[in-house]
Amino acid sequence: MESHQLWAVNRRGQALLRLGRVEGKFQRARELKPWQGQGPVQVGEWPFLGPSVASGEVCCRHQQQRRGSSKRSGPRDDQPFSGLLRPENVSREELVDVLRAAVVDQKGPLVTLNKPLGLPVTGKPGELTLLSVLPELSQSLGLGERELQVVRASGKETSGLVLLSSCPQTASHLQKFFTHSQRARRPTVTYCAVTDGIPATSEGKIQAALKLEHIDGVNLVVPVKSPSRKDILEGVKRTLSYFRVVAMGSGCALVQLQPLTAFPSQLQAHMALQLCPLLGDHMYSARVATVLGQRFLLPAESTRPQRQVLDEALLRRLHLTPSQAAQLPLHLHLHCLYLPGARPRDPPIKLLAPLPSYFSRTLHCLGLHYQ
To answer: What GO terms are given for molecular function (predicted)?
Structure first.
């Protein structure tokens, strides 16, 4: 095997995945600039996923029709937040069934699923998490002793794509691809979000130095102005995200977000700094205050988390009572994930996950259309 190539080999010894490599550094298949690759992607010879996933839109429509969501003509007010998952209310067997039904595609060692909001990836011993049921999920999907492991996943308070692999070598290669892309500031994920408020510009980048602080028993992300070298050594991180407004109406916006760095709650903190907190953000929305119609930021260190407060007009548009709004889920969905093409010069492959039902309901109520 040549030194400039990496291969993932399945149990039959067939070469399934090839990632370009030059002198120990992963070679990009194609430079993915912000928002590049949002259009149709040519389907390459990707043996794990196949055309149904590489084209993205096919598996998205398939899953929506299977759930019956495409036939709904309007929002269901009796169940405004359907599609949420509360691990404390389900058994291990029920969770495995939920995850099996959430599988978007399975080809070779790769499994892609659309994780519901509320399910943590990791947790304390004894807690019901994605990792804790991977052995049962692997058996349920007919993988035998080839146990799945997480390659990429959205967090507990975020819905969306999860990429799993039953081949450790494949998982390692893909994780290196994501790590190298992050270091090169090339986006590999796109989130969909709904914001309370409309960004001042239709697209742009958000740069902020962030740190984690333990305040009143809660770990909170706090922005740091002009961090010193000592601050960086003590855990302050310079973060960067791109945003683009897709649609706007009723004082809200549908936004695409691409984080180019990784930090806890980065996207929530970034949009709060833009005076447009995410809908359902009960951690950082309190930092944005309004006086005489003008928004401004409150000091992050002295502003404690509280339930997001929405104005009466927005509540009417969403068909929610104040008590329901206090339970509003975070509208942040890992919608798109980019994988390397089968060959070094191939364009990246785009995986898509359908929006959750409560997210689609919100878009319908606000008159926001996502294409």
So the answer is: pseudouridine synthase activity; RNA binding
